Amino acid sequence: MKVLHVTQGYFPAIGGTEFLVQRVSEELVNQFQDEVTVFTTNCYSGDAFYTPGLRRMSPGWEEINGVKVRRFPVYSRISRLFYPFRPTHRPVRFPGNQYLRSLYNGPIIPGLRTAIEQYRSDVVSAASFPLLHMFTALKAAHKTKRPCVLTGCLHPLDAWGFDRPMIYQAIQQADHYIALTDYEADYVVQKGANPDRVTVAGVGVDLEPFREVADQDAKQHLGFDDAPLIGFIGHVVGHKVVDTVLRAMPLIW
Length: 253
Fold this sequence. Notes:
globular, Rossmann fold, alpha/beta, single chain, 36% helix, 8-stranded mixed β-sheet
């Protein structure tokens, strides 16, 4: 089978979606001898979608562990024009605001839709919302009469990012939807998705091997001393607000 994945980032970019798509792509190659291609951006993080000047990779083709990867340049200066619609604590409610928020999120990738339409594959898969390439991949796949599978990686409590009817309309139009948890699957079904076209894959952490491990033993194994330990689990980028954790440390200490 020839699979085309469309995603916002790919190794050496680091993030949850990046790791998920890489792992799935490489396993399809290794276990099933599928031909897998990834269309992605030349950005190391989502911050670069709307922040000109951040370090980027070279656009073009390469092969990583048997997966063909094409990186597209992102027009972040266009997204920056929509800076007033960045995430804030104030709700944005006027008609059409979801499209303005999407333009700020980006990534704006000229030529991506044409490239998807012209690339021969049996299926098109895209991850993740609320980013623009999801809608581009869906439209391009259906225009060329190919099935499209969406992996949304939704954050239902993030109203600014995911309270957008356009996301749930796209999920309804997709040929299949991959949810990461039962909660997410139930959520998209409540939003109108066909339950017969929703599958829970699961990419969480298996807690069972660690339930009997004492905190002190874990610290020693990782090389930490007896001092209090505060952990951050997430992509180290500005919008994950790890800087807030760092600024809070003097107050906590």
